[in-house]
Amino acid sequence: MKLFHRYIFNAVLVAGLSGVGLFVFVLITGNAVRDILSLFASGQLNVRMFLGLLALLIPYAISFALPMGLLIGILVVLGRMSARREITALKAAGVSIWRISAPILCFACLGVLFSSVINNYYGPKARSEYKSILANIIREDPLRFIVPKTFIQDFPGYVIYVGETEGENLKDFWIWELDDEDQAVRLARAKRGKFTYLENEDVLLLELFDGFTELRSERNPDDLQRSNPTPTFDSLTVRLSLDKILGGKRKASTKLKYLSLPELTRMNEGLKQEIRALGNRIDDAQSYAKWQDLRVQITKVQYQIQHNYSMSFSILALAIIGIPLGIKASRSETYANIAIALALCLVYYMFMILVDWVSATPSCYPQLLVWVPNLAYQGFGSYLMLRSNRH
Question: How far does the chain reach from its first CA to its final CA, in angstroms?
């Protein structure tokens, strides 16, 4: 029996890791296309920085890919074994479903431990660093925005064009100022220019040298015959706010989902102390409003802590329900098992989304509701295993 347990464990391990790898690739690709692929394609990110940002996405992707990947491994292995009548032969020999499932449940428990570490420590840290780097990457090197011979529209209210760059110097510089309807109302052209980042003001300072400006008609900016060239200038300064395109300077994310377990625990204790400090002094409107706000905050923190653990234990919940379904399906086709796995995960994550909607409502106890999908899957899976063991 040990040999057979080893066979099942190794088969689920190989199939599960293959599924995890597939979903990690899909999740990373989706995030890369949304966030950084355009920056890389336009030359604003070099290969080293692009690969570094992709690496930071791996822990975040693993937290979602582990439950789905392991479920696929279970369904594929047990589906093939059931289709080849191996499960029937084992049951005929007196081996119960629980003994057949022992190596799978053992593997699922190991997955829970690994996922708990990822979800509570490495995942939030990597995700926070990813967001921080992405937000501040232009501030560290403002010239990353500037791609020669490309119309740059990253700055609201402006369009920029640069003929060529030589180090920090920009040559053949064009900048159009746009109105509320995105029509050009002013043009400034200079032979050369230079960017400087003002850290205290979070502003890119653009200095233009040796050029001219052209003011368009406010009534009809497209009527070039009525444009009014102004005298040439020796220097001109334009201030471009990075806050508008990057959402403010972010050296570290303050979102709860980007905080590790120790940080969430400290925040939870701090909020509890504030509530205790209020005591019974909530008889006036201001104190009551503060008490309500603290309740909402502490509920969000407690929900996030429980959410991280619940996502880890989803591996065990999906494994328990996947075992009887894999045996019952009796299909050796991989695509059919993947479809079943995706359907189960879709239903599970829909439950989680519904709970997330009330995460800021203390009266709904979202920190407890977040465990309902796990308990439902484990309960239904145990019932199916009991039925399968009787037949």
Answer: 21
Task: Work out the angle at residue 321's Cα, subtended by the Cα atoms of residues 320 and 323, and round it to the nearest 5 degrees.
Answer: 70
For the chain, residues with pLDDT lower than 70 are: 1, 38, 42-44, 135, 137-145, 154, 167-168, 216-231, 242-254, 280-283, 329-337, 391
CA 114 – CA 361 distance, rounded (Å): 31
DSSP states of 25-74: HHHHHHHHHHHTHHHHHTTSS-HHHHHHHHHHHHHHHHHHHHHHHHHHHH
Question: Which of 118, 148, 120, 8 lies closest to 57, judged by CA?
Answer: 118
In this structure, are 120 and 87 located in the same domain? Answer: yes
The residue from 219, 246, 273 where one domain ends is: 246
3-state secondary structure string across 106-134: HHHHHHHHHHHHHHHHHHHHHHHHHHHHH
d(C-alpha 300, C-alpha 358), whole Å: 9
Residues 199 and 308 in one domain: no
Number of domains in the chain: 2
Q: Which of 62, 72, 54, 70 is nearest to 119 (CA)?
A: 62
Contact residues for 387 (Cβ-Cβ < 8 A; gap 6+): 324
- Determine the structural domain holding residue 197 and report its residue range: 144-246
Looking at the structure, tell me whether residues 100 and 9 fall in a common domain.
Answer: yes
* Residues in the chain, total: 391
pTM here? 0.71
